[in-house]
Amino acid sequence: MSRKLLEKTYFKALNKVKAKNIVKDNVSLEDNILIINNEKIDLNKIDNLYVFSVGKAGFSMAKQCEKILGNKIKDGVAISTSRGKLKYIKHYTSSHPVVSKKSIKVGEKLLKKVKQLKKNDYFIFFLSGGASAVIEKPIDGLNLEDFTKISKALLVSGIDIKALNSVRKSISQIKGGKLANEIKANGKVLVLSDVIGDDINTIGSAPMNNGKFEHKIIGNNEIALKASKKYIESKVDKTKILTTTLDKNSIDATKYIKQKIKKYDEKYDSFCLLIGGETTTNPKGNGKGGRNQELALRLLLEKVVNKKISLLCAGSDGIDGNSDANGAFVDNDIYKKIDELKIDAKKYLENSDSNSFFKSLGYDFTIGITGTNVMDFIIVIKER
Ligand SMILES: Nc1ncnc2c1ncn2[C@@H]1O[C@H](COP(=O)(O)OP(=O)(O)O)[C@@H](O)[C@H]1O
Ligand SMILES: O=C(O)[C@@H](CO)OP(=O)(O)O
């Protein structure tokens, strides 16, 4: 069974929403006219252009923006989980998913910089998921130790991202539009969405959203999966994006996917099912894994694949949970390997150790940090 085809279909989605491509698709320069999303800004009529970029894709989006706008950029700040240096924009590497001293230090730098903007300046602000953790300034009276206790408790509580971020907004001097409040200049917020429904009030805890500045979604899970669909369509009898808003726990998601595979398997000689979203897990034990690898493990235990059907469950940011992999493959041949190595798949699941399981079989999908983030992709292919 072709792991290559799964990978190719995956990378069509990922590449479509790579920072480089979405910034290229949305920002350009023609004779001192800055074009953002069809809107023209005459750079002769503004004083200084600033670029800000915060979140997991913070570095890569800022880097591409520098490539397009070069020395038109006066100054700016980028904060992400990547490493790297930029020419006009100052880039800082920060922590995720828990706020650290570093997040506060760089959060303060960002606040200081945005306060310097004058009325006749203009800014582009790239916002991507992960922004909640990489920048912060707790409300007065709340120290980092207590702030971290609250953050950690929330992160393991299993509450959804909307609820989590509403708390984050209430204990922050940056989130929930408070950063926007400090800006006197005009500008635009270009958003790479990693939340179900692209809710701009939730992404990165909405540092720029109090209605003052237009937010434009320039990349999301749907845009990505449509690119996969376009690629695979001619290779199979039926291609279907089942959803881009899957938010079930991994047990229910397994049932849902199993049922869909059965239905399409009965009807079509070949097909590709594309599913996007973010499932949830309740990690137990001290294993290494993530929601994508756990889902793949549960689907393996449910024997949803066969000689013709294989699948890939993978994130888009490159890092699944507490592992260094991005996801895992499941195909029919994996069962032989499990028998040969006498591995007990259930035990790994019970210890939330899906990464160790797939790694030991050579079925992990490890690609490193991608510099983008639009939730997860599940790809199921039946080949003729
Ligand atoms: N060992 C594990 N097995 C399964 N899920 C895990 C494991 N460790 C962490 N997770 C899940 O991974 C999620 C965080 O993953 P991460 O990729 O950092 O999230 P995000 O992409 O949303 O920033 C948490 O919801 C947690 O439940
Ligand atoms: O920053 C955040 O608030 C969330 C959602 O945008 O992202 P992540 O789950 O990647 O931390």
TrEMBL record:
GO terms for molecular function: glycerate 2-kinase activity; glycerate kinase activity. Its EC number is 2.7.1.165. Signal peptide: none annotated. Residues 7-208 form the MOFRL-associated domain. It comes from the Bacteria. Keywords: Kinase, Transferase. One of its GO terms (cellular component) is cytoplasm. It is an enzyme of class 2 (transferase). The keyword Kinase applies. Residues 272-376 form the MOFRL domain. The keyword Transferase applies. This is Glycerate-2-kinase.
